[in-house]
């Protein structure tokens, strides 16, 4: 299955926001992390990020079908790591290797070294994905609430 990344412009903010909200709703309902969940993020924050010169949002496509999105923060500064935040695949398309291919494509576009990200420690599938992709835990964690801890990774 071919996966391509298609850059998102500000005109697509509403579509991106709706997809993001839907994609993260299950995790939001599970952890109630209003502070950190992309499902709880206002559309204005998504639109503001789309305007940032160092933010690259991409729709993840298989063929002509949009199946998710990824945001890359790349300041083009070797002293500062690039960041994935967030990446998501819509529920009907999960567990098909799409996220892994999307990360590889983002690394092809932005360079394969000096990356960081964080994810939910309790979501072992997410942790497994990133570790399989060569990301290593930094040892840093942040407790969000009694149910959820963020774990930080570098590559």
Topology:
Layout: E1 4-7, H1 13-31, H2 43-51, E2 55-62, E3 65-73, E4 82-89, H3 98-110, E5 115-120, H4 124-132, E6 136-145, E7 148-154
Parallel strand pairs: 4-5
Antiparallel strand pairs: 1-2, 2-3, 3-4, 5-7, 6-7
Number of domains: 1
| Order of strands in the sheet with most strands | 1-2-3-4-5-7-6
How large a portion of the residues is in β-strands, by DSSP E? 25-35%
Broad CATH class: Alpha Beta
In which range does the helix fraction lie? 25-40%
CATH topology: Aminopeptidase
CATH superfamily: Gcn5-related N-acetyltransferase (GNAT)
Distance between the termini: 25 Å
Number of helices: 4
Rg from Cα: 15 Å
Low-confidence stretches: none
Mean pLDDT: 97
How many beta-strand runs?
7
Overall outline:
globular
Largest sheet: 7 strands, mixed
> Would you tell me the structural class of the helices and strands?
alpha+beta
H-E order: EHHEEEHEHEE
Second CATH tier, the architecture: 3-Layer(aba) Sandwich
